[in-house]
Request: fold
Amino acid sequence: MVQKIITRTTLAEQQTDFVFWKSRSVEERLRTVEEIRCEFHGWKDHVQPRLQRVYTIVKRA
Reply:
């Protein structure tokens, strides 16, 4: 059975994200940054999306 634990703190007592990430290894931090970057750009399976080609036909007189 899982026990529910609730802790009340003030904003001043809360730990920052910096403390959490500082406790992680460099490799884990870099791996996480890469995951976030891929999510942001919408990449799937580490395949970079490319720009679509745009053709413009110019008729010269």
